[in-house]
């Protein structure tokens, strides 16, 4: 359920401190998610250590710099795990000959510190470290899901603040993915055209919530809100000497689950014109949090949604006796994107 957020031209995505699990933080998060679908979360207010973010970016660089033949051994498969390069479906065919605009490495859930997919040679020694970072991202998502549940005023007798997190408890397989992204610089002689050289095509994310880690001075993300609006790495009011805040956005599944109340906002990546004159490669990292595959997307028992929600998404499906699971929701979204058979 991708929508265009009602973000006024001049509005800023709010920056929220999530160190407290309390009603005021919860209300701020839900407000931002219902208005913009995007929220900045102060990194220092989370369980994630900036040294780990930086080390992850070092590992990412190391992997993407490794020989193509090695990366190809971990090529992405239908389970959405592995390395993909130049996602051609996101690019205008007239630009195909330019080569790679973007490559990515997706890690699914680890089990006891072990990847459940071919491990790239360049990262083999860091498998348990990557698994630990995956866990930290998941734990932050659990905290955010608790805050969302509080802000939505989920009925206490139905599970209250733990209603979403109980459905993201890692008791079974899930679609959660940790993704490393690399956008190589386009050489100036390639005739860079900012409006055409889209590095990641317009899309919305599939899962519950996404954490996006951006690097200082590596802008490029834009969100669709009455036209394309650039998203800064350091928003106004956050000193550039501080770690960039984590950008959190709502995915299609959580939007579907809440009848569209929380917005899954369309976004894309361009490399700003200033980068055209010999800029640097852009690296980013995303953690896509999904419920366990078996979670049934029934209407959220929320006082706020009963009051303000629309009979859409999970609310409509339930009324028709067609509630789907998280796995079915994801399968539908992947099939729509990659043309894989349902
Ligand atoms: O690289 C970015 O900044 C955004 C990536 C993204 O939106 C995605 O992978 O879903
Ligand atoms: Fe995205």
UniProtKB/TrEMBL annotation:
GO terms for molecular function: metal ion binding; oxidoreductase activity. Residues 173-291 form the Fe2OG dioxygenase domain. It comes from the Eukaryota. One of its GO terms (biological process) is small molecule biosynthetic process. Pfam families: 2OG-FeII_Oxy, DIOX_N. InterPro entries: DIOX_N (IPR026992), IPNS-like_FE2OG_OXY (IPR044861), IPNS-like_sf (IPR027443), Iron_ascorbate_oxido_reductase (IPR050231), Oxoglu/Fe-dep_dioxygenase_dom (IPR005123). Keywords: Iron, Metal-binding, Oxidoreductase. Belongs to the iron/ascorbate-dependent oxidoreductase family. This is Fe2OG dioxygenase domain-containing protein. It comes from Orbilia brochopaga.
């Amino acid at each position: 359920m991708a929508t265009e957020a009602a973000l006024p031209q001049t509005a800023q995505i709010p920056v929220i401190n999530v160190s407290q699990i309390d009603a005021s933080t919860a209300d701020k998060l839900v407000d931002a998610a219902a208005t913009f679908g995007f929220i900045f979360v102060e990194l220092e207010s989370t369980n994630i250590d900036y040294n780990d973010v930086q080390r992850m970016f070092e590992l990412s660089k190391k992997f993407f710099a490794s020989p193509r033949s090695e990366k190809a051994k971990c090529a992405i498969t239908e389970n959405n795990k592995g390395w993909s390069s130049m996602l051609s479906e996101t690019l205008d065919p007239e630009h195909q000959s330019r080569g790679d605009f973007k490559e990515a490495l997706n890690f699914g859930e680890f089990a006891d510190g072990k990847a459940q997919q071919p491990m790239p040679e360049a990262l083999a020694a860091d498998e348990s470290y990557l698994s630990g970072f995956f866990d930290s991202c998941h734990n932050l998502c659990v905290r955010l899901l608790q805050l969302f549940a509080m802000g939505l005023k989920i009925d206490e007798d139905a599970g209250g603040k733990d209603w979403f997190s109980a459905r993201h408890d890692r008791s079974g397989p899930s679609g959660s993915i940790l993704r490393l992204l690399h956008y190589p610089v386009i050489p100036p002689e390639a005739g860079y055209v900012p409006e055409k050289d889209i590095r990641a095509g317009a899309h919305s994310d599939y899962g519950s919530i996404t954490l996006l880690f951006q690097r200082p001075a590596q802008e490029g993300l834009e969100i669709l809100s009455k036209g394309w609006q650039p998203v800064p790495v350091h928003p106004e009011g956050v000193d550039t000497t501080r770690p960039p805040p984590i950008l959190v956005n709502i995915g299609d599944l959580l939007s579907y689950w809440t009848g569209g109340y929380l917005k899954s906002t369309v976004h894309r990546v361009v490399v700003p014109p200033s980068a055209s004159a010999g800029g640097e490669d852009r690296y980013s990292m995303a953690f896509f949090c999904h419920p366990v595959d078996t979670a049934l997307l029934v209407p959220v028992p929320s006082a706020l949604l009963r009051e303000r929600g629309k009979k859409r998404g999970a609310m409509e499906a339930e009324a028709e006796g067609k509630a789907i699971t998280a796995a079915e929701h994801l399968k539908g979204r992947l099939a729509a994107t990659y043309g894989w058979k349902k």
